[in-house]
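Contributing: when you submit paired examples, paste them exactly as shown. First protein:
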Amino acid sequence: MEQPPPLSPEDAVYMEQHSLGQPQPVKIFGILHIVFGAFGSISLIWTAIVLAMGNPAQKLTPPTPELTAQFESQEALQAQMMPITLVSTVIAIIVTVLIITAGIKLLKKRASGLKWSNRYAWTSLAVKGISLVLTLLYTLPVVADATEASLPASMPISPRQLIMITTVLGTLLSCIYPILTLALLNRPKIKSWFAAQAD
């Protein structure tokens, strides 16, 4: 009887993944999705507390004329930023729900885990692009105008330049995880594994 051709190393790994369970990237991203989603939830809870009750640090810090003036300046800035803060909070809720749902489905080995991970990744990248534009067009002028007067003129760069640089770098760094999610979970053999799972 004719023997089947030997498996290539890649096919052997693929068969092993089917027999042992989910591929390692699926498990790793499932865990990371849940962890990052948990951090996002904590951040949202803190934001809700601050919006509803104000900054708790103000109530814990003994009042002085200098601190009072600083807190009043911060409150005025927060009032100016409130529309952006509310929009950012709603968007953060959506992204957090997507990443937690994706993480749960990945850990449960559901075929829809890939779809939810892709939804999270593309939504996250789109949100980061929109946030960058809003920050440069709206947040940057407001924050720069509020801080320029309180900073020494001898600074090598202006507050506007500093905020612009940190915003762009921060946005680029935050894009790494969703890009890795798309790149590693959409490899052909990983997608084949998802296709063989129950939804």
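Second protein:
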Amino acid sequence: MPFAALEIFHKYTVWYFSRPEPLRKFSTPLRSNTELRKQPEVVHFLRTYDSNTFYGVLATVKFLRDAKTTDPILPRLIDMLTEQCSALLGDYESNVDHWHEIANTYHPPATGKESGSRGALSAAAFSEWNSKGRVVLESMASLVMAEREAHRKQRRHSLLPSTTTLCLWLNPFTGIPDGGEVDGACREYATSLR
């Protein structure tokens, strides 16, 4: 997919996840009425304005995963994904699975047994995650914290994702220490959290 097409798809994806409430209310009876759904105009409307467009988010994720850290479009891809996450957060209760799928895509690279050698993490894998994954997770955590603060000020109760996992993933990590070094490493880690 050319980047220009991704830009257009991105705009539609953001619009879809933040579409106005009257449009959502209009779509509901159309989806539930089987007789109406047979009409070509209704079919076109539902495919255009009421079909799940999480594919736009997945396309952005794929572009971001494949982008090199020196790629000039990298900042724009991160901005696009942040805008999409913001739109998803606007209706989080309907998009819980999508939110978690994005977050889990950008967890830190594996250390220890998963990466092949005890406690080792390749510099390339960490650098790649640091320039893409860390930035995305920081944006997602910031979006949630800002939304939570706005809801608190408005005294509005709503369901929002937890930032605990995101913040834990963003803490610095150096690998899994050997058995004798565990106590010192745990103290060091606890001190770094203060």
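If you have annotations for the second protein, write them as plain sentences, like these:
The longest helix spans residues 133-154.
Residues 3-109+120-172 form one domain.
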